[in-house]
Every structure is written in structure tokens, then in C-alpha cells.
Amino acid sequence: MRTREHGIVVRGIVLGQTELSDIRIQDGVVVSVSTSDKSRADLGGRKALVAPPLFDIQVNGAGGINLQGKRVKPEDVAKITQRLAECGISHWIPTLITGPINGMEHGCCAIVEAMRDKRVARAVPGIHLEGPFISALDGPRGAHPRPHVRLPDIREFERLLKAADGKIVYVTLAPELPGALPLIEAIVNNGVTASLGHHHASATEINRAVRAGARLSTHLGNGLTPLMHRHQNPVWPQLAEDRLTISLIADLHHLPREVLKAMVRAKGAERVILTSDCVHLAGLEPGRYTLSGLEVELKPDGRVCLPGTGLLAGSTVILLQGLVNAARVAGMRLEEAFASATTIPAKLFGLDYDFGLPQAGKPANLLLFEIDKSKSHWKAMVRAVFINGERCDPI
Fold first, then answer.
1. Are 164 and 174 contacting, i.e. CB atoms less than 8 angstroms apart?
2. One domain for residues 264 and 131
3. For residue 271, what is the DSSP state?
4. Which CATH number characterizes residue 59's domain?
5. Which of 26, 163, 379, 381 is most deeply packed, by most CB within 10 A?
6. Residue 192 lies in a domain
7. In the chain, what's the furthest Cα-to-Cα distance?
8. Residue 68, exposed/middle/buried by CB under 10 A (0-12, 13-18, 19+)?
9. CB atoms < 10 A from the CB of 257, how many?
10. 3-state SS class at 7
């Protein structure tokens, strides 16, 4: 639900500060930010935290709405935009995974059509193509349908770029495949970010891809063969390469806590992007579902797996919870965790997004939340969301 508030006081500890603040909002604009006078507040309180809304760079669907296949409609993108806003996400990148070329074209067209709406255009900078130019090997391919995996093809990329009206933000591909390097150069020359993912590349192949212009690793630590050499494998070279930023899924299913912590420490928080890799099963009851033509199982703990295997097929954990997880187990300060899902991805993709803290005279853009530390896993709870002066959370 979106409403424009007429006179409201939001109380909480602003990210990076220690004292309680009162944020006064009138007609969607921040009137003042001051030390709390402890009088009555409309929202928040002494346990509440105030931060910028988030930027999720990898969303496959949400709330039962799947972005994959020929059935996706522009209104689906608008509905997901609203659903994510309720969860504290002001910007997001729709992800289209490996599929038939005409199905991926349809997805591109539907997303671009949705972006004609001002609210969607404000939230969505463009599209992420996760495939189809990825490894066909079991393990590195992950849950992507094998029949639709294809070798790198510049013409196919240009075909999808045309369907997207040029609005592709990044492409995930396997750098070891024949034709990958010319494709990376073509991607970069079109102003798109090339990302390495779902691959089994050597250190030499990764280095060549970076020299060709690749600047991101998609959900590092996932989309890998389960058995690999302890030293010669795709993970270490990507961690060691300073020109690569890495995205990580911090749901603690895709990466165990020790792995998440080690990767953040090895890479440095300034080169880490936290994302959800959220699928349309987020918010649904446990059970068996179909995801991109494959049967998957949503388990009670939130994991989405191919039945009978340990292969994960996306996540159902909202991004805010991932940030709190990273702050709890990976040694990230909360400010660093928020930067990894706001300013760092915006800078990488060259997007002029303002993720500043509430400031008098500017439209209200804030995420009010609490962290329940009474349990070992720390639960993130959204209390209110303001995006461009409008309140977006369920009221």
C-alpha cells in the first residue's frame, strides 16, 4: 500500500549513529532530523533502526509471481515492485534465467513494457540475464534447464538486447566457453556489465575474462561443481582478483556462515554485494512447486532444492534478513552490510541512485526496522518503508 503521510514522527537510531533520532515527515518530505525529545512518536521507538531502502540486484520473482517463461506480464513486474517495496527494497534488477531464446525475449519485452510506468522505471534500472551462455555441466549449471544452455553468441546477445530496448544491466556467463571473450567485449562495448557465474573456469580463463572487461562474479560460491581441486578451482582466483566485485547470497543456505565470513574477509567489504537471488516461492508455504520447468521443493527452513539433491534453486529470504545475517556472522558492520546492497552495486553499474540518510528538505526515503536478537539467528523485522515520500509497507 502506498500513502503520502501528512505529519508523522519516525523514531529510531539512524544507521551509523548511536543516539535516538526523531524524523519529522510532512507531505512526504523530511521536515527535520533531530535528537529525540522522547515525546510520542508515530512510528518506531528506542529499538528501531533507520537506514536507506535497499537495492537487490538479483530477483527472479516474489510473492508467487514468476518472471520466467512466456506467461510473464508487465503487471507482474509492477506487482513485484510493490511487494519488494513493502520489504524495504526501493530498487531491484529483474533476473531472467536460461530458457528458450523466444521466452527470454518475451521476458525482456514484458519488463521493458512495465518500465513505462514511472514507479517501475524509478525502481528498475534494467534486466539481468543469468544465462543462457553458462556451463552445461551438472553442478556449475545449477538449476538452469540444460536443454536451453547455449554457447556464447554475440548475435543472440544483440537479439536479447534489442528485445530489452538496450536496458540490460548485466549478463552472467561462463568465461571458459568458446566465444566467451568476444562476447564479454561485446557486452562491455554496449555499456553492459559482464559477470562470471555458473562456470568451471581456470585461473587463466578468469584472468582473460577480467582483461576482456568482466567486473562482477554472480553469487560466488554457488553454481559450482560439488567436487573440485582444493587449490585449482574457480573460487580462489575470483576472490584474489581485485578488479572483480562479488555478489553473495547471505541466506545462510547458499553459503554456510563460515564460508560467508571467509569470503567477505578475503574480498573486503568494499568489493562485496549482498543479494537475495529471490524466487517466486518467497512467501509461499513449504511444498513442491515448478520452477522454470523443473520440480523443486520448498523446505520448512526456506531452502529451495531440486528434490532428492542438495542443489539449491534460488532463495526465499528477503534481502534485509541477508544483511542482518552478514552483520551477525560475517563480521560486517551494519553500515557495511547496507552499503553492499545500496551504494556499492549502484557504483558498479554506474547508476545515479541516492542512498543517503534522511535529510531535511528531501523526500522521505527510509527503511525503519528492528532486529530481534532474542534468538540465535537474529530476525529482521520491517516496521515502515518510505520511498520517494510515499509509505509503501502494509499499514
1. no
2. yes
3. G
4. 3.20.20.140
5. 163
6. yes
7. 66
8. buried
9. 14
10. coil
